[in-house]
Each structure stands twice: as structure tokens, then as C-alpha cells.
Amino acid sequence: MILDRLARAVDDRLRLSPITRKALAKVFPDHWSFMLGEIALYSFIALILTGVYLTFFFDASSADRVYHGSYAPLDGSTTSAAYASTVRLSWDVRAGLLIRQTHHWAAVVFVAAIVVHLIRIFFTGAFRKPRELNWLVGVTMLTLALANGFTGYSMPDDLLSGVGLRIIVSVVQSIPLVGSWLAFLGLGGEFPSDEMIPRLFVSHVLLVPAVLVALISVHLAMVVRQKHSQFPGPGRTEHNVVGSVFWPSYTLRSLALFAWVLAVLFALGGLVQINPVWLYGPFSPAQATSPAQPDWYVAWGDGALRLFPAWEVRIGDYLVPSPFIPGVVIGGVTFLALYAWPFLERLRTRDRWQHHLLDRPRDHPVRMGVGVAALTFYAVLVVAAGDDIIARLLRVSVYDVLSVLRVVVLVLPLLTGALAFLLARALSRGDAARLGELTRADLTTARGVGRPRTGHGAGGAAGVDEPEQPTRDRTGERIELWPEGDVWRWRYRDGPGRVAILGNRMALTEQDAASAAQLAYPGVDRVVVPGPPLPPPAGKVRTALRRGANLAMGISLLAAALRQRRARRRRADRSGERTP
């Protein structure tokens, strides 16, 4: 009762009920891949919750401290305050190790979920108009997630993270003209400086998370504002969304996913060791640890630095050091390509239509080939970050491993990209529904030899890669209306003789039924079908159904009249008038 009165009081002042009803009635698709973005969101929430706990015990300072705690090998040693507090948090604070490792695993899962979510959006064309801004926001969130993960990884001031921080400082210093100034500005002095850890801490817990929260809010607002994309299927068009209503079905399923994400993250934090800083020891500029690999989401940068030859270029009086191309150019070009891809593809295909139905990856062979080649390239770079471990396991020279990987990183992406392009083209032009059903004739057609078949995936003339056309509504789809006693019913039909979806509400007039149908399926032509589409029930059953329908319609009309009367009273109260 108290909550009800409080809600009514707030609604009387802010008029939130229409917005809330509209939000709760929003429909979300049921496909599992749409949960990837939610996994990223819930991992970010876990990061915030565990990060708040860690800030109570972490000392973000480079000042000297003498460690006294439960970890005997380090007891009595002088280290930085950051490292000493991290070891004390892991060994002496109740649940400290659990929360610290859960925080680290949440960061790993957060970046992984963003990457997989972006891959799904890329291959299904969900970045096309009108969702280019969503794509730009998502790529920016990935960039910030990588940066925040690295700053958090570097704050404990252990030997492993210190070596990684020294590498990234060298990469920044390799930027011509401004590199040394940028490194000095970021660290507050020469590496390692006294201001280094405090600045990493402020960036990690305040600046980047604040921007991430703002971008996540903008992203969710755009998803709510725009119609949700969906995969093609029966009853799904460019004008509607088929799935579950936000409240209560989708909300309960999403909350269950949230519980599962938290359960998995805390299980990993409690059972799977990650980043045992007490084994690495405190950072010392004169020391390095090997084997040393960063987290997977920045390992590609380490792999690029290991594979690229030590070439230095001199432009005039300026020297471009060898880390510049693998450390700055490769990553910079990749993210610039990600930002520009929606506009480059639109320029290539001349497709300026709005798209709410997603593509099958096979329908865009060029996009498929480029995406697979890029993923293969970065997968090889991640593997190259562990070249010393590979050499030790295979008992071969690390230089031999590097030589092989340098060839693989150039050849394998081209092979996988070309293969993905040919398979996608064969699937789109041939009659095969799955990859295992491809025939030699389909592959021959994909190479441009012979004429393409005229099946569901047929394309244009042989050897011609036709521009990828926007998805259009199915021909023959319509809305069918018919009278049933004193009421009218409607249904959506996906072409003659195909799937029909029956409307679950009856209407008093033909116009009311048409309005309800066009609200659910805007843009679809209306067709009146005389007579009921199903055999009429006989005798008492028919009479009972008719009476039930009339009773339901009467109740709905009475409720509508009461709502109108209540609205008139509120308007009269606001204008100072009184009605009996």
C-alpha cells in the first residue's frame, strides 16, 4: 500500500507511467546471440562491484613500504606500497583473493563478450543504417575496455606488469615528434616515476569507467529508441519485431543470465588462479621475467612486437624506431578500419536503405572473407605472444618458432579469407543449405566457372560479384481480416499458403481490426477475407465462444471508458475545474 501510494505520487508529478508502459511493452528477439551484449553489461557490473571492494584496501602509491603479512617469503621486504597492499589484500584480507581474482576474470570476460558481440554484429550486418552510431559506440567501448584492462593489470607494480608497462611506454615513445611528450605527460616524469601508479589508479577507477558508463547508457538508449534488429524468419519483416515482451518474460530471463554470469565469475575467482603477483615479486627496472605474457586481449600487441623485424626508418632528421609499426600502426589501422567499415561498405554496395532484418554471413562473401582474414591475423599474433612457451614445450629454438610464425602471419590470413569468401559465395549462389551439403558444382560456380544455379541463393551471371542488395519484404505477405459473429479477427500471412500468425485480440469493427494489424505489421497491404478461415464450432461450443468474446469485449470497453473518465478528471484538476 505504501509503495503503491508512493508510486502514484511520483507519477502524478513526473508523468512517468506512459513512458514506463511503453518501455515494458518493448519486444526483444529470442535468439541466443543477443545475450552476448548482456553478458558484457553484467560483467561490467561485476567489475564495478568487486572494484569498489578492492579500493578499500589498495594503496595506489609508489612510496616504499615494508611488508609484514602472512606471505612468509616476502615478510620484512621493502616494496612499493601498491605491491605490498596487493599481496596483503591477497593473503590477509578476508575474501580479498576471491574478490581480486573475480575482478580480474570479470575484466577478461568483459572484453571477450564485447569482442564476440562485435563479431556477431559485423558478420550479420547489424551495423548498417540506421545503427551506424551503435557500431561507433561499441568500437569505442572496446578501445576503452582494452585501455582500462591494461591499467588495472599494471597497478599492482609486480615484476610482470612492470615489464608490460615498460613495453607500452616504449611503444608510445616511438611515435615521431610527440611520443616522448605523451609518455612524460601520462607518467608524470621519466619511467618509472612516482606519479605513475597514482595516475594509473585515477584513470582505472574514475576516468575510463565514467566514460564507459556514459557510453553504455547511450548505447542502451539507442537500442530502446530504435527498433531491435532480428534474424529473418516467419512473420518477421523490416517493420516489426517478433520475440518476448520486456516485462515479465524477457526481464526474468535476463535476470537469470545475470545470476549465471555472477556465479561463473565468482567460481572462476575462487577456483582458477590468475595473476599470482606474490610469485612474480616486486617490479625492478633492472629485472625482467620470462616467460612473460599479458592478458589475451592485449597479447596481440606483444605478438606483433615479437614478430616484426627490428627495422628502423629515418625520415629527415627524425628516427622512427622499430616498435612504431607493430605497436602503433597495426593497432591504429585496425581500429580506424573498424570505425570506417559501415561507411566503406555502404560506399561499395551503394546500399542506403534502412535495415532491421539481419544478414546471413553467406549473403555477403566480401564481408565474410575480410572478417575471417582479420580474425586469423590477430589469432596468429596472440599465439606469437607465447613464442617462448611454444619453443620450450617443443624443445626448439625460439628463433625457429619466430621464423615459422612470420610466414604464417602473412600467408594464413590470406588463405582463410579466400576460403571463407569462396564458401560463402558457393552457399549464396548454390542450392546447399549447409556447409556440409556443398558440391563440386557449387564450388566451381563460386570460382566464377559456369552458370550459377537458380535456387534460393542464386546470384547473377558467372564470374560477376553482384552488388549486395538490401533485404526487401517478402512478396505476397498480407493482413487478412474476417468477421466472426459480432467481432472481427485478423492474422498475418507470410505469402500465399505459408505461415500465418493469428492476432490474439478481437475488434468490434473492421477498422479497429485493421488498425491493430497495421500497428503490429506496418506497411503490409490489407486484404479482407470473407468468412471465417477456420471451420466454425458447432452448437453450444460456438455459442459459448461468442458469449465469451462479447463479455471480454464489454469488459475492455468498460475499462477504456473508465480510463477516459479518469483522464478527464486529471485534466480538469490541472485546469482548476471540477466535474461531477
Structure characterization notes:
- This protein is α+β, with helices and mostly antiparallel strands and 580 residues long.
- It has helices at residues 2-14, 17-24, 35-55, 81-91, 96-124, 132-154, 159-173, 179-187, 196-225, 246-271, 277-280, 296-307, 324-349, 365-384, 387-394, 398-429, 440-446, 510-520, 539-575, and strands at 27-28, 64-66, 78-80, 244-245, 313-315, 318-320, 478-484, 487-493, 500-502, 526-528.
- The longest helix has 37 residues, at 539-575.
- The two termini are 27 Å apart.
- 28% of the residues are buried.
- The model is unreliable at 449-473 (pLDDT under 50).
Spell out the key features of this protein.
single chain; about 575 residues; alpha+beta; four-stranded mixed sheet; two-stranded antiparallel sheet; globular
Per DSSP E runs of 2 or more residues, the count of β-strands stands at 10
Structural class, from secondary structure content? Answer: alpha+beta
Percent of sequence in beta strands: 5-15%
Rounded mean pLDDT is 84
How many H/I helical runs?
Answer: 19
Shape: globular
| Proportion of helical residues | 55-70%
Strand order of the largest sheet: 9-8-7-10
Computed over alpha carbons, the radius of gyration is 31 Å
Order of helices and strands: HHEHEEHHHHHHEHHHEEHHHHHEEEHEH
Q: Biggest sheet: strands, sense, closure?
A: 4 strands, mixed
- Which regions contain 5 or more consecutive residues with pLDDT less than 50? 449-473
Amino-to-carboxy terminus distance? 27 Å
